[in-house]
Amino acid sequence: MGTKYSFGSTFSRWCETQSDYKKQYIILANYMAGIRNTVLDTSYIPTQYQNEVKKCFDSIQEVVSIYARTIGTDLRDVPTNMLKDMEEITKLLPSAIVAADRLYNKTGSEDDKNSVSDVLEKSLTFARKGIEDCSIMIENINSFCIGKGNSDSYLKDIEENANSLVETLARSNELYEGEKAKIQEQIDKLNAQIKSITSAEIGAGVGVGVFLALGVFSIGLMVSGGAGAPLVGIAIGVMGVALAAGGVAFGLGTSEIHKIEAAIEECGKTMDAYTAKIYQVDLMSQTYSAMLDSLDAVKNALLVIQGAWEELLKDLNELSIEVKNAKTDSDRQVWDNVSSELKSISDIFEKNIKPKVQEMDISTIKVSNGKYDFAMTNEKLQNVYDQSEKTDFIRYLRTA
């Protein structure tokens, strides 16, 4: 017979929220790694701006370090902890199912009714815990964004300072806006291409190795420096760094990406050293802004997970009330329904939810120091990753 409650659809939605959460977390992780791995040289920047540039850059990297020391681990462990809570609920169910079946067959007692009620109460406790955990983490994200000092928006203040600095530097170089427009157009194209590929990979629930930050990329862009000056490298993205969950990496070597990369390199050939330095600061500012947007997306994903827990709590609570109001010796239909609902929860979780949530595990995310580029095949990329030195992601950020 069909079930009265919506456990199946609730659990399916719960699993979908985990998939979206993994996607948003991995994108955030890439921005964090990109900022952590960028080295900013103030050469070619006028002396009067150098201290301000360094201060801004240090503030942005400090945010990454604070994230790693405070909320980073808890956010990384969301799927793992949710899975543990769901497993605890399903471990309780077999004894309650047996008791409900005895009551349906009129061989049960008041003790069996109490047993079913007790299991449901314990299940409600875990559902409430899921809701509370989400609330705590959402509040922790809010507190992290407020940060230190007297401002109510510490992270946003850094963003405004970075944007203001870029505007100041741009005004000091009349060539900047024109040069930026040419290269930014290609960067935006690359962003769209890579974002579509990585979103598909992450959404598929596979192990993900993203070796570049979305929006600020691992391109070794060199500029002439002008008048015979030495080449200047713009540190775009996570050159030489890979992020992988589950130890699986994938490549992005499409012909379209290679064309865009070549176009970016051509743009760089006409850019003088000072313009290149302004653009490096500009890219860091853009990456930081994207990181804040990504952090907000992680918070929204947590809100959706919390909503799924609330749906589960509602159905469990209604089932618990039904059990408390049922008579042990006459309400056979109730006990048949209770048994069916509990069996449905257990079956859906073991066959559909548990395997999918295990795919969402990001607790083992690592950073690799291998050397990567867009042209690598998946096999080459995986070989480099396998042979590289790897560091726990949160530990890596803490060294920023």
Report on this structure:
Residues 202-241 have low confidence and may be disordered. The strands form two sheets. The protein has a four-stranded antiparallel beta sheet with strand order 1-4-5-6. It has 400 residues and is mainly α. It starts with 6 loop residues before the first helix and ends with a helix. The chain has helices at residues 7-37, 47-69, 72-76, 78-104, 110-146, 154-171, 176-203, 255-269, 273-325, 332-359, 378-387, 393-398, and strands at 209-210, 219-223, 232-236, 242-244, 366-368, 390-392.
Number of strands: 6
Q: What's the alpha carbon Rg, rounded to whole Å? A: 26 Å
pLDDT < 50 runs, ≥5 residues: 202-241
The averaged pLDDT comes out at 77
- C-alpha termini separation: 57 Å
**Content-based structural category:** mainly alpha
Beta-strand proportion? 5-15%
- The coarse overall form would be elongated
Largest sheet: 4 strands, antiparallel
Helicity range of the residues? Answer: over 70%
Q: How many helical stretches?
A: 12
Side by side, the strands of the main sheet go 1-4-5-6
SSE string, helices as H and strands as E = HHHHHHHEEEEHHHEHEH
Keywords:
about 400 residues, mainly alpha, four-stranded antiparallel sheet, two-stranded antiparallel sheet, 6 strands, elongated
